[in-house]
Write a structure and sequence with these properties.
The complex is a heterotrimer of chains A (96), B (215) and C (551). With 96 residues, chain A is an all-alpha fold. Chain A folds into two domains: 1-46; 52-78. Chain A has helices at residues 2-24, 27-45, 53-79. The radius of gyration of chain A is 21 Å and the shape is flat. Chain B is an all-alpha fold and 215 residues long. Chain B has one domain: Four Helix Bundle (Hemerythrin (Met), subunit A) (Up-down Bundle). In chain B, 77% of the residues lie in helices and 0% in strands. Chain B has helices at 16-51, 53-61, 65-91, 94-124, 140-176, 186-211. The longest helix of chain B has 37 residues, at 140-176. Chain C has a single domain (24-543), classed as Cytochrome C Oxidase, Chain A (Up-down Bundle). The longest helix of chain C has 33 residues, at 198-230. Chain C contains 19 helices and no strands. In chain C, helix 5 runs parallel beside helix 8 (158-185). The chains are: A mainly alpha (96), B mainly alpha (215), C mainly alpha (551). The A-C interface holds A 54, 61-62, 65, 68-69, 72-73, 75-77, 79-81, 89, 91-93 and C 181, 184-185, 208, 212, 216, 237-238, 240, 242, 244-245, 248-249, 252, 299-300, 302-303, 306, 310-315, 318-319.
């Protein structure tokens, strides 16, 4: 019970901090806080450390493949050579 | 998922504990799979929010931060309340499972209702992408992309909420018949994992949809 | 172990205990679910083959022999979609895998029997939806559903197919979760990881891909459907989206899916090669870990499908490099199979013929893949028949051969009947011959520049195309043969002994066909996989006990 209350309080505080950081325009801080909230949920509510060891393996595996998806999936977009065109909507449809 | 505390003759397990551990591990594996499902959405967001950042941020500024923030609070609370049901299940306290479960489900419904209100406001303001999209100017195209992502992501998350609420009600029905005990409460646990996961996804979606780029 | 199972064994067999239709449709027995899957994917295989036959008939003549251009496009799409999602991806895992995973582990069933049945119903529903979509309206996009062709041009005809493939994905995920948890949790006493049959390592690696890649396909198709239904831009450039993003997401699933379509075949071949060489697999641990590393590296090579799509040079170089990496574990497998056969006492029964066909054809398919992984040669070869030949060598020459090999190998265990050996060998030889006649000319066609997916072609390519179509005819006959003699053997085949091939592995220690509960008592494993000395010792002892020599 105390554990749940602690986690809830932490989440609320983190949410408040997120709002403040967003107001201040600190995008990176918002991201860190969001990851912390996820950690609180995974450790506090889902209690991954008390689950069978297999669960931890599966969770880490999912995280690893998620990282691959995001890293290699965005590689092309972030390194692509874009040829500038005057119209901001270069493929604007003829008829809409 | 097992539906009774005892092993039937066809069960592949040696002991109930063995079965329950497998079920929990299996749920985590399924959640890893779910993470990749949302991963595709996050990739869309990651790419467009960088390659089309100006219009994307303009879209973020038009979302309803009040409703979004309240909804985040509601989900945090709902997750906490359902975790109480999980604790009660461990003690075999079926009545508390029902009460906490119904509380969590009600908060879930509140989230969906607020979300519906938010959607209705956005439709009225013509923020749904299309020919009469409300925002104009050089970055309107990217703002439309943002709103495409916004509606897709909230829809997909909302569908998960609906499934989660259904699962919680199913648990409550079982608990009303008093079938959980200290020796067997795996379904309560497993639904808790799912509900927390839905919670967790929102904790990532909230900053992406409402915060990053707002200032 | 006697040659003909006693009536008592037959009565306990999973096949005949409670033979009502209801008991089959509501079964939780992994063996019966495997057979349900076998029936359904056979139907889809026939359907997909009809598509292939029409495509090959059309290409007999440069101007197109029988179909209109639009119908031709629909036929190769139908062939691709049906073969990939309704046959190749499920093939070995859901039939042989479902049947064998618990038997090989020494378990009574998979970890989640009801989830297993659910996966079959999802599969059937998805199959019907896909077929409905393909025939009600038709689809011209090819199996890749590239945008904006699929979203702009098809006017919604893509939706039922996409929804079907979406459902199909959840069937795959269910199977994957089931296999992974079973292999972790349900190993018999003494069955350590390094005593697992290599088939299970391969299926484990396949399941990882099922679980972690399939959801990305699901979300991709969902985005596609959303885009079409609500006219919101995600991929469509006219709505501001990036069509290449669709390809990134699609291939994040679909390249690993290529390994879904080959890894289980590699597992089957490892079993067969070892049994028919009567020798432990050479370098067991290398073969086992090469399955895992193929699955892992397979996730980071998808960009090689997009070298000419306008992706950045950095991304192309990275993906090209990773694509070369994946050939290392593949080559380890090939060399280790050859090492296993070297010095073995090889018997050329039908399963072994299929396995040897697999090794040769997979090697050709794999080596030609290197041409496509190289940036420079890919520019010339991509979107030509070279690509078509390359992946058919992997998927048909490789996976379908392994699938048939595995069916022959475990047929006695599954049905309790022997198939006619002579016909098995004839079909295997015919498939090998017909396959090469069909697809080898396509390498030359592609090298000479014939693009894929066109209903017509310049007259200079006709000779090679006619050769290819003739090969397809032979292939069709060769695929019909097993259908006929397997059916025949169900009624007239000789009774199968428990272990007709003298193989190791727990599945051979129980009756043929196995009883409902798989093993009379939970087996205890004391030896490595493929320990033929121990097995032969046990077999000799059993013969002495029975007092009657038996071949």
């Amino acid at each position: 019970m105390a554990r749940i209350a602690t986690c809830w309080t932490m989440l609320v505080l983190l949410l408040a901090a997120e709002l403040v950081a967003a107001r201040a325009g600190l995008g990176a801080v918002v991201c860190v806080l969001a990851v912390l909230m996820v950690l609180v949920i995974v450790l506090g509510f889902m209690q991954i450390l008390r689950a069978p060891p297999l669960a931890i393996i599966f969770a880490l595996g999912g995280l690893f493949w998620l990282a691959i998806l995001l890293a290699l999936g965005s590689l092309d977009s972030f390194t692509r050579t874009t040829v500038p065109v005057h119209d901001t909507a270069p493929y604007a449809p003829a008829v809409r | 998922m097992p539906d009774s505390p005892v092993l039937d003759h066809h069960s592949p397990y040696e002991t109930p504990l063995h079965r329950d551990e497998s079920a929990i591990a299996g749920m985590w594996l399924f959640l890893a799979s779910e993470a990749l499902l949302f991963g595709g959405l996050f990739l869309v967001c990651l790419i467009y929010s960088h390659t089309r950042s100006a219009g994307w941020a303009e879209g973020v500024r038009h979302t309803n931060l009040v409703i979004g923030g309240v909804n985040t609070m509601i989900l945090i609370t709902s997750g906490a309340v359902y975790t109480m049901a999980v604790e009660a299940g461990k003690r075999g306290d079926n009545r508390r499972v029902v009460r906490a479960g119904l509380g969590a489900a009600a908060l879930g419904v509140a989230f969906l209702v607020l979300k519906g209100v938010e959607w209705a406001l956005e439709f009225r303001e013509h923020l749904f992408p299309g020919p009469d999209f409300a925002l104009h100017g050089p970055d309107a195209g990217a703002a439309e992309l943002f709103y495409s992502f916004y509606f897709l992501a909230t829809f997909l998350h909302g569908m998960h909420m609906v499934v989660g609420i259904g699962l919680i009600l199913w648990i409550c029905r079982k608990a009303r018949h008093g079938i959980f005990g200290p020796a067997w409460n795996t379904p309560v646990d497993i639904v808790g994992l799912y509900w927390s996961f839905v919670d967790l996804v929102w904790m990532l979606l909230f900053p992406l949809l409402y915060l990053l780029g707002r200032a | 172990m006697s040659g003909t199972p006693s009536p008592a064994v037959q009565q306990r067999s999973y096949l005949w205990q409670d033979g009502t239709l209801r008991s089959w449709l509501l079964t939780r027995d992994h063996k019966r679910i495997g057979l349900l899957y076998l029936g359904s994917i056979t139907a889809f295989f026939v359907l997909g083959s009809i598509g292939a036959a029409l495509v090959r008939l059309q290409l007999l003549e440069p101007t197109g022999a029988i179909l209109s251009d639009a119908t031709y496009n629909r036929m190769f799409t139908m062939h691709g979609v049906v073969m990939v999602w309704l046959f190749l991806v499920p093939s070995i895992p859901v039939t042989l895998g479902n049947f064998l995973v618990p038997l090989m582990l020494g378990a009574r069933d998979l970890a989640f029997p009801r989830l297993n049945l659910l996966s079959w119903y999802l599969f059937v529903a998805s199959g019907l939806l896909v077929v409905y979509g393909l025939f009600r309206g038709g689809l011209e996009t090819g199996w890749t559903f590239y945008t904006p062709l699929s979203s702009e041009y098809t006017q919604g005809r893509v939706l039922p197919v996409v929804l079907g493939v979406f459902l199909n994905g959840f069937s795959s995920i269910a199977t994957g979760v089931n296999f992974i948890v079973s292999i972790h949790q349900l190993r018999a006493p003494g069955m350590t990881w390094y005593r697992l049959p290599l088939m299970l390592w391969a299926l484990y690696a396949t399941s990882v891909i099922f679980v972690l890649a399939t959801p990305v396909l699901a979300i991709t198709l969902l985005l596609l459907a959303f885009e079409h239904l609500f006219r919101v831009g995600v991929f469509d450039p006219t709505l501001g989206g990036d069509p290449l993003l669709f390809q990134q997401l699609f291939w994040f699933y679909s390249h690993p899916a290529v390994y879904i379509m080959i890894l289980p075949g590699m597992g089957v071949v490892s079993e067969i090669v070892s049994t028919f060489s009567h020798k432990p697999v050479f370098g067991y641990r290398f073969v086992a870990w090469s399955s895992v590393s193929i699955a892992a590296i397979g996730f980071i090579v998808w960009g090689h499908h997009m070298f000419v799509a306008g992706t950045s040079l950095y991304s192309a170089i990275v993906f090209s490099m990773f694509s070369f990496f994946v050939s290392v574990p593949s080559a380890i497998k090939v060399f280790n199979w050859l090492g296993t056969m070297h010095g073995g006492s090889i018997r050329l029964d039908a399963p072994m013929l299929y396995a040897m066909g697999f090794i040769g054809l997979f090697t050709v398919g794999g080596l030609t893949g290197l041409f496509l992984a190289s940036l420079a040669s890919d520019v010339h070869l991509t979107q030509t028949y070279f690509v078509v030949a390359h992946f058919h060598y992997i998927m048909v020459g490789g996976m379908v051969s392994a699938y048939f090999g595995g069916l022959h190998y475990w047929w006695p265990k599954i049905t309790g009947r022997m198939y006619p050996e002579i016909w098995g060998r004839v079909a295997a030889a015919l498939i090998f011959f017909g396959f090469n006649l069909t697809f080898f000319p396509q390498f030359i066609l592609g090298y000479e520049g014939m693009p894929r997916r066109y209903a017509t072609y310049p007259a200079q390519f006709q000779v090679l195309n006619v050769l290819s179509s003739a090969g397809a005819g032979i292939l069709a006959v060769a695929y019909l043969l097993p259908l006929i003699y397997f059916t025949w053997s169900l009624f007239r085949g000789a009774q199968a002994p428990d272990n007709p091939w003298g193989a190791t592995g727990l599945e051979w220690q129980t009756a043929s066909p196995p009883p409902v509960e798989n093993f009379a008592e939970t087996p205890v494993v004391t030896t490595d996989a493929y320990d033929y000395a121990a097995r032969d010792g046990r077999a000799d002892a059993a013969r002495v006990d029975e007092g009657a020599p038996h071949a």
